[in-house]
Design goal:
disordered N terminus; disordered C terminus; elongated; Porin; mainly beta
Length: about 325
């Protein structure tokens, strides 16, 4: 199955923030989509995100119909540096399956963890810090309120984690218990007008016999300070499971620490086809007490630029006589 379909899509990653620090006055979450934003929750912030999904699957080749119930969860904590967060993410699935391959249908149930991943994310590049320190253009309102070429440069983070899979698990590729790596490259563009575009490139379980490669494209639009909508496209490629998923939905901010969301997930294939509804909540325990500004390097660059500009101005102001010319 080809990993294509680069539709423009989106995840509810609410960023009502001052981008000069990871911490924001309002909670920012990775819900209700499946991608990870580039930014962390902020130092001394503990954030819990969870959701409940219910839906149906139909496998045309195996002639099975499935009613599925899933619980997903994410526990995120920022420490040491604003750029760093650690997280535990996972999903528990319970399926009731009807097998129609014989004259008499057979029903059975399967349940286990689809994933349990412990990892850390680190922001390696943030183009918004320098822009924030430089400040707005005092001579042009238009320049400050339109999309510019610099907006195409995204923030970039890397995530490294370990999957902990249980033995005899029907939702994982290996029969025995296994620990395997997961790597994610995340980019994030914050555009004027409340638009956020997130991309994830995913390499998962590469040390097993069934490595998975994938991507997620997420585009979010905050219609106001407290409400946003999203669409998202996810592609997965593996010998164990491949798919193309489309998600969409909305999230609402009830207060600065609490968000609720609703979303739908649809599969483009019929082996199996999927249609799930999902409701979720995210809550932040805010123990943050000091913003960290990585200003030293940026200020040094700005000082050097200012000195260079002043030197150039002095040279341009020199008259031929000042230069010793007759």
């Amino acid at each position: 199955m080809n990993l294509k379909l680069p539709f423009l899509f989106l995840l509810c990653f609410i960023t009502f923030s001052n981008v000069s620090a990871q911490y924001t006055e309002m909670i920012n979450t990775n819900r209700p989509g499946g991608s990870q934003g580039a930014f962390s929750v902020g130092t001394n912030v503990l954030q819990v995100e969870t959701g409940f999904s219910y839906g149906k699957e139909k496998h045309d080749l195996l002639k099975t119909e499935t009613n599925g119930l899933a619980i997903d969860y994410s526990i995120r904590y920022g420490f040491w540096k604003e750029r760093l967060e650690v997280s535990l993410m996972g999903e528990y699935q319970s399926n009731k399956i009807t097998d129609n391959r014989s004259a008499v249908s057979r029903e059975y149930s399967l349940s286990n963890f689809k994933s349990n991943t412990l990892g850390a994310k680190y922001l390696i590049y943030d183009p918004y810090r320098k822009r924030d320190l430089e400040g707005p253009n005092l001579y042009s309102w238009k320049a400050n309120n339109k999309t510019q070429w610099a907006d195409l440069i995204p923030a970039i983070s890397v995530y490294a984690g370990a999957n902990f899979d249980f033995a005899d698990n029907p939702f994982t590729p290996e029969a025995e218990a296994k620990i395997s790596p997961k790597l994610v490259l995340s980019t994030q563009n914050n555009f004027i007008g409340g638009w956020v575009f997130v991309t994830n490139i995913i390499v998962d379980r590469v040390t097993t016999d069934f490595p998975t490669y994938g991507y997620i494209l997420t585009l979010t639009h905050a219609t106001n300070r407290y409400f946003s909508v999203f669409l998202e496209n996810q592609g997965l490629k593996s010998d164990f499971y491949s798919d193309q998923l489309l998600r969409g939905g909305a999230a609402a901010l009830l207060n600065e620490n609490l968000q609720v969301d609703l979303s739908l997930t649809y599969s483009f294939k019929d082996t199996p086809s999927k249609f799930y509804g999902r409701a979720g909540v995210a809550y932040r325990f805010d123990m943050h007490n000091k913003d960290e500004y990585l200003e030293d390097k940026v200020n040094k660059e700005l000082d050097e630029k200012e000195k260079k500009d002043k030197k150039q101005e002095r040279q341009e102001e020199l008259t031929p006589e000042d230069n010793g010319e007759q």
